[in-house]
Amino acid sequence: MTGRVTARPAAQQARDAARPRRIALVTHGFETTGGVGTVTRWLRDALLATGAYHVDIHSLATSSRDRCSRRLAAPGSWLRTSLRGAGDLPPREHRWGANAVEVEFMRYRPRRELTGVLRGYDLVQVVAGGPAWARAVAPAGVPVVLQVASRASWERSSQRGAQTLALRTWRAAMTGVTSRFEEAAVRGVDAVLVENAAMFDWVRSAGPARVVKAAPGVNTALLLPAPRWRAGGHLLSVCRLGDPRKGLDRLVRAYAGMVRRCDGVPDLVLAGRGALPAPVRDLVAELGLTARVRVRADVRHADLVELYRGAS
Q1: Which of 83, 227, 237, 276 would staple 97 via disulfide (CB 3.0–4.6 Å)?
Q2: Residue 87: pLDDT above 80?
Q3: Mean pLDDT taken over the chain
Q4: 159 pLDDT band (50/70/90 cuts)?
Q5: Is the separation of the CB atoms in 193 and 131 below 8 Å?
Q6: CA distance linking residue 178 with residue 272, whole number of Å
Q7: Do β-strands 93-96 and 293-297 pair in parallel, antiparallel, or remain unpaired?
Q8: How far is the C-alpha of 178 from the C-alpha of 143, rounded, in Å?
C-alpha cells in the first residue's frame, strides 16, 4: 500500500515535468488596444517560441456595447447562458463579456465560468493598462503575475476639462471605485511588473506583492536600425492618434516652434491607430503645417518598422 501511494505522486510529477506549462495571458480589448495588445502579442510569441509553454489569450470586455456581455440596455442579453465569446475566433484566443458591462467596475469582477477555465493553467499573467483588471482572475487559485502600465486616476486627470459636469461626476465615481479595485488587485497577486518608478513606489506601498520594474521587451530581430542612418529623415511619433493623453496638440505646437527657428527641420509623421481628432487637425492647419505634418493612421506593422527605420 505504501509503495503505491508514493509511486503515484512520482509518476504524476514526471508527467507534469514532461508536458508544456499552461499559461493564460489575461488582457482587455485585445484587438482594439494599442500598447497593451502589442505587449500581449509579444509575450505570447516569445513564450511559444521556446516550445516549453502552451499559451492562450483571454481578452476581457472593455466596451459598454460588448456583444459577449449581459447589458443593462439590452434586457434580452441576460438570457445568454455564457459570457464566453462564440463565433470565428483565432486559435488560442478567447473573448469574455461581463455582467452589466455598461458599469465600469463590473468589467473587473470575476466570472464564474472564466474562473473555472483559469484553474486549468499553471500561471495566469495579466497584461493590463491598470491594476483593477487583475481582480477578474482573483479566485482562480493559481499563481498570478500582473504586468501593468499605470493607474486609472493618473490617466484620467488630463481628460476632466473636456467633459460635461454630468460625465465628470459619473467618471469620478467610477474612478473612485476603480481605485479600490486597484488596491485590492495588487494585494491579491503574487508579483507585479511595472514600467516606471511612480508605479513601482505605489505598488510597493499598496500591497505585499513582489514588484519588479521591467520595461516591455523589444523584438530586436525585427526592429533593427537602418544600415545607414539618414540625418534628414522625418520626425516620428507613434501612439493612439485619438487619445488626448498622448499630447499630440503639444507636440504639434512644439514642432511649429522648431519650424519657426529652422525651416530645414524634417517633416513630422504622426502614426498610430485610430483617427487624428478634429482639434489637432485644425491646429495643424492654423499653424500652417498642413504640408509638413503627415498622418499615417492604422499603419500596417511592416510599414511601421520602415517608418522607424526612416526616421531621423
Answers
A1: 83
A2: no
A3: 89
A4: low
A5: no
A6: 28
A7: unpaired
A8: 23
Q: Which of 4-8, 55-59, 171-175, 180-184 has the lowest mean pLDDT?
A: 4-8
CA distance 48 to 65: 33
Q: Parallel, antiparallel, or unpaired for β 210-213 and 235-238?
A: unpaired
Q: Rounded to whole angstroms, how far apart are CA atoms 139 and 255?
A: 49
Please give the pLDDT value at position 245: 79
Task: Flag whether pLDDT at 261 surpasses 90.
Answer: yes
CA 206 to CA 192: how far, in whole Å? 12
pLDDT at residue 105 above 50?
A: yes
Spatial contact of 235 and 266, defined as CB atoms under 8 Å apart: yes
Q: Which three cell numbers stand for residue 231?
A: 540625418
Nine cell digits for residue 229: 542612418
Q: What is the pTM of this model?
A: 0.79
Residue 309 neighbours by CB under 8 Å, 6+ apart? 224, 225, 226
Residue 240 to residue 261: CA distance in whole angstroms: 29
pLDDT for 3 beyond 50: no
